[in-house]
């Protein structure tokens, strides 16, 4: 019975090849992180272990698009992977906060009569992202928590368009609304131009930094990426599709420190951003500390020299 929890683990009846019933252990846990662009994430079970979650192992949401929200409760079966003995796979993943997804009827209708060569997004001076080119909501659009996925079309149709790109237009100035700095960054956290293009490799970000008061800022990194669910990724043919994804994988409030120069400010911001998996040394682009330089630039735009102090050796 979907959504019925019996403590940290519950039993689900299965049948072996001989037809005999056998109990399959179900593990309860929470989502640690989920990368919608790369289509996988990790969950932590109540047993304290981490599990790899591929999007194809998540129960359907009624739109074809499958995703998880950080911190949400899930229940799953485990499968040991000989190639990753310390990181088992999570199978048949059920979302406990969403136990009864809407069942779909048929396949999705195309969104566009003619697929545009570029998908356009507009960012306003408060950091809000809109997709006016997409028109009215589509039945297979997806929204849950801080994840918005706009259905584009079937993968076969997208393949016919060579060089499909994303065009993002930012406000004319980094600070157009007092107390709000909006800038674009590439996947590695480096600032981009006001109007930039993306071929979706990894994804891009819109970094929104807001003054909470003279000593604190709130930072939100809104990621823009594209997901293609082709025949090699899905079991149900109705799951095939291409979605433009806008999500907020990073949100944090930070203290504005006193600093001697931009490099010092960047370092003091960097150490405030958690890196629980110690990704910075192995793969800097996998940690949100990559935004420390852009955040430092935003602070200097919002509060020019207000926290700048003279070096003790000056």
Keywords:
314 residues; mainly beta; OB fold (Dihydrolipoamide Acetyltransferase, E2P); 40% strand; disordered N terminus; NA-bd_OB-fold; nucleic acid binding; CSD; CSP_DNA-bd; CSD domain-containing protein
- Multimerization state: single chain
**Mean pLDDT across every amino acid position:** 81
Number of strands: 16
Radius of gyration: 22 Å
Short structural description:
The protein is mainly beta and 314 residues long. The chain has two domains: 9-95, OB fold (Dihydrolipoamide Acetyltransferase, E2P), CATH 2.40.50; 118-302, no CATH class.
Give a verbal description of the structure.
With 314 residues, the protein is mainly beta. It folds into two domains: 9-95, OB fold (Dihydrolipoamide Acetyltransferase, E2P) (Beta Barrel), CATH 2.40.50; 118-302, no CATH class. It is built from four helices and 16 strands. It has helices at 155-159, 262-270, 279-282, 292-302, and strands at residues 9-15, 21-35, 40-45, 50-54, 73-81, 84-95, 118-123, 129-130, 142-144, 147-153, 165-169, 180-185, 195-198, 204-213, 216-229, 241-255. Strands 1, 2, 3, 4, 5 and 6 form a six-stranded antiparallel β-sheet that branches. It has a six-stranded antiparallel β-sheet with strand order 9-10-16-15-14-12. Mean pLDDT is 81; it is low at 1-23.
Question: Which SSEs are present, and which pair or pack?
Answer:
Elements: E1 9-15, E2 21-35, E3 40-45, E4 50-54, E5 73-81, E6 84-95, E7 118-123, E8 129-130, E9 142-144, E10 147-153, H1 155-159, E11 165-169, E12 180-185, E13 195-198, E14 204-213, E15 216-229, E16 241-255, H2 262-270, H3 279-282, H4 292-302
Parallel strand pairs: 7-11
Antiparallel strand pairs: 1-2, 2-3, 2-5, 3-4, 5-6, 7-8, 9-10, 10-16, 11-13, 12-14, 14-15, 15-16
């Amino acid at each position: 019975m979907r959504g019925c929890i019996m403590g940290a683990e519950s039993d689900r009846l299965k049948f072996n090849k001989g037809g005999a019933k056998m109990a399959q252990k179900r593990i309860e846990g929470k989502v640690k992180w989920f990368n919608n662009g790369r289509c996988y994430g990790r969950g932590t079970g109540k047993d304290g272990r981490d599990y790899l979650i591929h999007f194809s192992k998540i129960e359907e949401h009624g739109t074809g698009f499958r995703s998880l929200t950080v911190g949400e409760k899930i229940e799953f079966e485990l499968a040991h992977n000989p190639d990753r003995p310390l990181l088992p796979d999570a199978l048949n993943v059920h979302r406990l906060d969403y136990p009864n997804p809407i069942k779909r009827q048929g396949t999705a209708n195309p969104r566009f009569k003619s697929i545009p060569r570029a998908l356009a997004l507009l960012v306003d001076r408060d950091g809000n992202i809109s997709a006016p080119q997409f028109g009215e909501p589509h039945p297979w659009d997806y929204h849950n928590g801080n994840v918005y996925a706009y259905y584009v079309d079937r993968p076969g149709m997208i393949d016919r368009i060579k060089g499909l790109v994303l065009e993002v237009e930012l406000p004319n100035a980094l600070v157009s609304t007092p107390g709000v700095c909006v800038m674009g960054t590439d996947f590695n956290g480096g600032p981009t131009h006001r109007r930039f293009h993306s071929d979706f490799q990894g994804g891009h970000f819109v970094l929104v930094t807001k003054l909470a008061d003279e000593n604190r800022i709130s930072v939100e990194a809104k990621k823009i990426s594209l997901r293609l669910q082709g025949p090699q990724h899905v079991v149900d043919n109705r799951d095939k599709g291409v979605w433009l994804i806008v999500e907020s994988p990073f949100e944090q409030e930070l203290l504005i420190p006193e600093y001697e120069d931009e490099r010092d400010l960047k370092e003091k911001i960097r150490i405030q951003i958690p890196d629980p998996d110690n990704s910075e040394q192995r793969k800097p682009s996998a940690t949100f500390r990559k935004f420390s330089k852009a955040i430092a630039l935003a602070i200097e735009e919002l509060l020019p020299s207000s926290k700048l102090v003279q070096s003790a050796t000056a």
